[in-house]
Amino acid sequence: MEHSVFHLGHGVLAHTATDAMYYFKMSPFYSTSCNNEDPRIPVNELGRNFLRDMTGVEYDVDDDASTPPSLWVINQQMRTAPNAAAKLNVFYVVNEVILQAPRASQLIEARLSNVNHHLRVALETLAAFKPVVGEGDGAISSTDLDAAGPTEA
Description:
Strand content: 25-35%
Largest sheet: 5 strands, antiparallel
Radius of gyration: 29 Å
Number of helices: 4
Structural class: alpha+beta
Order of helices and strands: EHHEEEEHEEH
Strand order of the largest sheet: 1-5-4-3-2
Helix content: 25-40%
């Protein structure tokens, strides 16, 4: 998804899980083809019980991970049975902003890219390093040794 942040507007704060879902529905992350849009689903806490009996994509507030009113965690999940749902995405409603959490593969890719960059810089620095042999005015640099060519024993 090209969007990763959605601003609700100044002063908007979700005080209940129902508020958090209402605000989340305004974001570009919300898909209107989900089970939550079924007209039989009440727009309150009872709606969760109805959703558990359906199969397909749904959004649900994670009560355990949320810390109202400043942080609400919303899971997009694929429900396959009343007690079986696989997480597809995680979203955060933080004060006035909705954020999409990165996936583990994205985090690992970013970390490996960062490590690769620092290793390349270190190796380039090491390749450019020309140590000095000896001390004082008579010191011979490795550049001087390279210019002198091979020595015979």
